[in-house]
Specification:
single chain; alpha+beta; 5-stranded antiparallel beta sheet; two-stranded antiparallel sheet; 7 helices; elongated
């Protein structure tokens, strides 16, 4: 939650320094790693894991991004044209964590930032992603505000315990009732 709050304030920040860039990159990188780690530890609901996040994708228009030119991404990808796409929670986090290309997008009037451009080492030859700051704030806030209230597990054929369902909600939302309870309430 704190990461989401800090990032949201960066949208209107007037003074921008190298330290600011470091702090934003740190927040996004640590936030993405934390979300992916929580997902891999089964601490995020199935609903949130299956949710997709809006991004913008830009095709290459110049030479392939490499160690000598990745900092000039605006020359390598067509930033004038792009198309909207939705990525899974894991794919958004992986683009950040494995970013070969990383760059900021200035907000209106050059004030603050409105997002970041990233592309992982695996995707850099195919595309560049624009992740809006609003989307990142929403993603981090959604994970931070989630309340896991039910976990279902079963043993598989080998006897190993596996998660079969993880149910959560944002704090303050209604809880999803187990099927047996819903059935009892309907029948009464």
């Amino acid at each position: 939650m704190a990461t989401a709050e800090r990032l949201e304030k960066r949208k209107s920040q007037r003074k921008w320094t190298d330290r600011t860039e470091f702090l934003v990159e740190r927040d996004v990188m640590v936030g993405a790693y934390s979300v992916r780690r929580l997902k891999e530890s089964f601490k995020i609901s199935d609903k949130l894991v299956s949710h997709t996040w809006p991004v913008r994708i830009h095709e290459p228009c110049g030479p392939v991004s490499d160690v000598h030119n990745s900092h000039k991404f605006w020359e390598l990808y067509n930033l004038e044209k792009g198309r909207d796409l939705e990525l899974s929670l894991t794919n958004v986090c992986n683009q950040v964590i494995h970013s070969w290309i990383w760059g900021f997008s200035a907000g209106e009037g050059g004030r603050g930032i409105d997002g970041i451009f990233v592309s992982s080492d695996k995707k850099r030859k195919k595309c560049l992603y624009f992740l809006s700051l609003d989307m990142l704030v929403d993603l981090f806030r959604s994970v931070g505000e989630e309340d896991i209230y039910r976990i279902e597990m079963r043993r598989d054929a080998t006897g190993e315990m596996k998660y079969t369902r993880i149910v959560g909600r944002r704090f303050g939302e209604e809880m999803e009732l187990p099927d047996a309870v819903e059935s009892l309430l309907r029948d009464s």
